[in-house]
Amino acid sequence: MYFDTCFFDDSVILAEAVLKADFGTFITLHLISNQLREDTLEPAPQQWFETWFDTPLYETLYAHRDYAEARQLAALISQSFPPAQFPELVDIACGRGRHSFNLATLGYKVTGVDLSKNAIEKARRIASEKYADLSPDFYTHDMRQPLGRIWPLAVNLFTSFGYLADDAANTGVLRNMGDAVGPGGALVLDYLNAAYVRSSLVPEEVCDISNYQLRIRRSIDEQEGVVRKEMAFKHTQTGQLQTFTEQVKLYPLSWFEAAFAKVGMHITEVYGTYTGEKIQKQSDAHPRLIMMAQKDA
């Protein structure tokens, strides 16, 4: 709507300039008009996560997410950082609240934040219907921006990190997480294990999901250091095709150790599974890197 208005107004001014035979005015306004059109027609491209997480197909694809695993992870977090000592937490990139609700049932006062408006609306709806007595709060927030307050504990779970192409930008996101906890506070970051991904990657699969045939292609881009998943949803009745991409940085444990140090935190424990298998050295034997970190006093 903004573009239509600008284009119409410029056209009127240009027409008047031509009728007045004011050649200098015509040239000047023509350049201004072109600049306005370029600025309006070429917005900055959106990142893949700014659109994909808000689509109905995202919910369709991940409807099978394991709530038992979420309960296991919540229990593991409570063992390392019990709610008696860390009574409040922020769940950064909380999605529809799968982990938030499990953490709230263990006694934490939970605030969940996520970029996706649809996810936050659903989390609020579930909270009011099933968890009203626990009073979890949910807000839209872009984790690329500071959160603006402090909690004793912050969590970022199910590989909700490493979305940005630039390493410094991802470190900036980690800094925002670290800034959300006070001295002696803690951060739990649950991430994929890059070594496990490399050894177990399934390049392609086709399956039927709801009313769609889904083709998934997975690949590793060594130059960019990412694992990429390209998804093509073809509607079985209309033939309509919709495509989406996910990609995440393949950061090793050593990258996280250095990044945590940069933001004034240190990793205290690392687990490779939601059942709590500790790992001392990264290998392809475990699917996760569940990092328990604390802020330097």
Q: What keywords describe this structure?
A:
297 residues, alpha/beta, Rossmann fold, 2 domains, 7-stranded mixed beta sheet, 4-stranded antiparallel beta sheet, 11 strands, 28% strand, disordered N terminus
Biggest sheet features: 7 strands, mixed
How many domains, as an integer?
A: 2
Structural class: alpha/beta
- What coarse outline follows from CA principal-axis ratios? globular
Considering the protein shown, what is the CATH homologous superfamily of the largest domain?
Vaccinia Virus protein VP39
- Overall mean pLDDT: 87
Radius of gyration: 24 Å
CATH topology of the largest domain: Rossmann fold
Q: How much strand?
A: 25-35%
Give the helices and strands as they follow along the chain: HHHHHEHEHEEHEHEEEEHEE
Distance, first to last CA: 52 Å
What is the number of E strands? 11
- Residue runs with pLDDT of under 50 for 5 or more positions: 1-41
Helix content: 25-40%
The helix count comes to 10
Q: Which strand order does the major sheet show?
A: 3-2-1-4-5-11-10
CATH class of the largest domain: Alpha Beta
- Architecture of the largest domain, according to CATH? 3-Layer(aba) Sandwich
